[in-house]
Records
---
Amino acid sequence: MGDDVDLLGPRGKIGLDPLADWHLFIGDTASLGSFYRLAESIEVPGRAIFIVEVDDMNDAVTATFA
């Protein structure tokens, strides 16, 4: 058995765990604005990981930001 995962759907307020080492955001390109806004509230040394569905593989980017 693996670890438990909590999944959240859209709602008015989403709180990020300030003690988490990293946060995972999964969605399509329409989600990027919300993802960036949430990621701005993550304090160092926390990290954000985005998995984004793109229509064209030429639009895919892998990047690490410090």
---
Amino acid sequence: MTIKQMREIKEKRGYSYAQLSEYTGVPAITLQKIFSGKTKSPRIATLNAIEKVLGGDEEKFQGKAFEYGKSGNNVLMEEEPVLGNPDGIKYGNPGKRQGEFTLEDYYALPDEQRVELIDGVFYDMSAPRVVHQDISYVIHSAIADFIKKNKGKCKAFFAPVDVQIDCDDKTMVQPDVLVICDREKIKGFGIYGAPDFLVEILSKSTRKKDMTIKLAKYSEAGVREYWIVDPHKRMLIIYNFMEEDWMPVMMPLKGEAPVAIYDGKLKISLDEIAASIDEFGE
């Protein structure tokens, strides 16, 4: 199957890059570069993963993804946990399936059920570990102190806070740390629209979602800067969407990292984040 044929099938089925990333396991940014022609010679394993999905039965891949590794063997695997059964009978309207849920279903769930809704799909959110909370505190407090000291107009928040990032009824996310500079986006329920700066702290259950589905969602929604903290690998991954040809910048958790939306004047201590991991584990 040629890339042109793949593109035609993608458009016919109405897949967003985020959805195709979820089904194939290929990062959304990689898909964008392949279909736009920026990547001239994609890896065979990557093309095989895409062709396996686009060349197969559409219903087969709902809520699943392909994992392609160094061996080149593609194995169909379950995505991270989602709510209910495949037909959505346990949660919300009995006639709905994953991909069809809306904010009406989101608000109908019990208050103690922590979830995110992304393009009509529910994702379970386990309670954050202590290290997760402490890293959030380190980042949020540094940003909040900087804003206060400089009498800035932006506001810093940390989870849980609802973010209706697409301003539609199919998506509601809860980033770990966020900065909003347009005060009109701050509503009684949470945030309506794209934040300027977002941070997600990886865990085993959220790694794939944060690094693929949310990456595509945040870049498409208009987020200016996205940080991913990986406690297991002790790395910080920075996406500066303000750059025309943005590429991820990876940094070990040592020293400081500049925040691009503040032109590097605000720096976050990566040593403090590393110290948190040392104290509380990954």
---
Amino acid sequence: MAHLSIEGVSKLFGTTFAVRDFSLEVGDGELVCLLGPSGSGKSTLLRMIGGFEHPTGGTIRIDAKNVTTLPPERRPTGMVFQSHALWTHMDVFNNIAFGLKLRRLPKVEIRQRVEDALALVGLADYGRRMTTQLSGGQQQRVALARSLVLEPKILLLDEPFASLDQHLRERLREEVRDIQQRLGITTLFVTHGQDEALALADRIVVMRDGGTEQIAPPSTIYRQPQTAFVAGFIGSMNFVQSRTRNGVCEHPLFPLAVPVEDGPVTLAARPEALTIRSSGRVDAATVHRIVDFGTHKMVDIDLADGTRLKAMVAPDDRIRAGMRVEPSFAGFFVFRDNELVHQSMPAKGDVEIEELLRV
């Protein structure tokens, strides 16, 4: 196990910051997901930790040792790339053994460590197969074994499942989490998939434009987003633009008590915190579409101003398309200039994050 410390790290490409003044502490055996849209700087940051990019400024330490200027082969890190980066002219055994051979380890030790690594990733009998004979998921397991066989202190995973289908991604991420916990290895996992981050991470770092929006455990990120960007990026979120005056929201359908200064605000609520009832109001919303997921229904409703909201209702709810309905928030967030300024906790009980994200 190892402790990773990133202190004020920046990376400039020309005059553009890919990463700007980024700091993070990762504890022994912790799995941290770097989550963000394309171009947020997460892969660049991971490559700097692995030594494949050099920071423009800042310091990277592993177990208090400054590794900022060390090349990849001298760092106690192992990196798994999205592209697998396997040698097609070598069989599986030799792909995994390559790094050990460079270290000039005895043949007996190399064989034992490779066989152990193959067993760890569920490929015990695949050593003599060529990599071109493997499926995408099997190739990614080989790439993982190639990193783990070197016994790195820090495991770096750069969107390793991005090219795989959904069911395979879900199975592999469970396997990776099991392996990570079994080995107790400190891990950073880059992804732009919120479901992967919520399923895998001890903590999530939500990145945007090379900086940090929020760092917190998955449940906190979901239930207590500190910015409108985080609220919209994690899970499904409804946003309604309005104004407040004398502590009350002026939106005709959401006259909520909002104890903030007068001015423009963004109301936000999860689908499970949006309730709907039939209404004869002239300014009522209209049900646009209903999707039945078996355990619940997801209802799209259109407000008079064109805003579309999503509400989660029971599977036996008799709501139907075209109905006039009145929505209300059982719990909501209030943002101003991207910052959270007020939160009203929902009256409903907690709903499992994974279930919500399947919507």
---
Amino acid sequence: LRYMPIPECASRCGESVADFGSTFRGWELAGTPVTDVYQHLHEADRSTMIVDKSPPYSAQPGILDGIGAQFPNAKFVHLVRSPHDVIRSYVRMQFQRGNRRLFESDRNPYQAGEAIWYACNANAETFLAKIGTDRHCTIRYEELTSDPARSLKTICDLLDREFEPEMADPYSLH
């Protein structure tokens, strides 16, 4: 929850930033599940698409099933990156220190990174196989970076949004 844009959410809910901030702090203190917060935001403004980029959701079996059940119209983009790059990043950022509860602590960081990459992708693939193909797409990170327009068109098609060429060049001044 700490990464949610409070001013944007307040605006979507028709509340002042201060009032929404108080509501939000209450959710944090109460340990309100993110899915409940999303449901509140969705009910406040049904025209807005809520996007969540949370790779840890795929770390444990069942989390994606719960999201899919709670949000039966949710669509999923499975972004897959080369395991070599992910493992190097995992080791460099020392993520294994925070993941000892998921994997044996006696593994070296490279083995832990490999195990996490594999588990997350296997869990995502298992979940995606259960839902309709109209609710998901798989994008390879390397293709997204080498040919962003093609990958973004696929995502836009999934989300029923029109592709705009500017999407493929987000850092340019249009």
